[in-house]
Amino acid sequence: MDNRYYFEKLSNVIELDKTETQHLSKVRRAKVGDVIIGFCGDGFDYKLKIEEINKTAKCRVIDKTKNKATDITPITVFLSTLKNEALSECIDNLTQLNVKTIVIFDTKYSVASIDNNKLEKLKNRSIQACKQCERADKPDIFAANYNEVLNMLFKYDLTLFAYENSSRSFINDLKNYKGKKIALIVGCEGGFSSKEVEELGKYSRMVSLGKTILRAPVAATSFAACVLSGLGEWNEI
Description:
Layout: E1 4-6, E2 13-16, H1 18-27, E3 35-39, E4 44-53, E5 57-66, E6 75-80, H2 84-96, E7 101-105, H3 116-133, E8 140-144, H4 146-152, E9 158-162, E10 182-186, H5 194-202, E11 205-207, H6 216-231
Parallel strand pairs: 1-3, 6-7, 6-10, 7-8, 9-10, 9-11
Antiparallel strand pairs: 2-5, 3-4, 4-5
């Protein structure tokens, strides 16, 4: 949806940044008095009336509604660091699937690293995905080291680890976990080391994603989609 705009801070007068304003004025050719939809990541859609368009656009809130996609089982994806294109693809897809948190972490066979600059680009990528899929909250995206990830796994009601050598299905395990905290672990293209498999397996259920080996972006996307379907989240409109 290209008539949907992101703003950083909720206040009496909403100010869109230069990039959003340029799209508003140059692409949509909006004018003062027009009404648009804005969001700031808090789960609400804001109906905004444009009051001024210069270098930035200033708008006033005239209504707000809770976005229906906000109330969904909170899923966290722990994703081993990937190359830029593959990682961006994952962020885009997982945002569209309404994943609440994405944790990027290094493993032994990671062939790329994550820094603050890359992280900011990924967050901006997720905002664009939110606009396109009409999502009003945005995923919390951050980097962590491997040991930090191990310590985080304790707080989830269910943790599923996608492991190519597992023969265990996970779809039938999901019916009692709707609304609870769920974590998914997905490796990079090189997979996990035997030590990492052993350690991660202590805190998770190792499950199969099928008979073929999936590339990481497809694995992460398919994993999250199957879990959402298995939870029954896609049965509700």
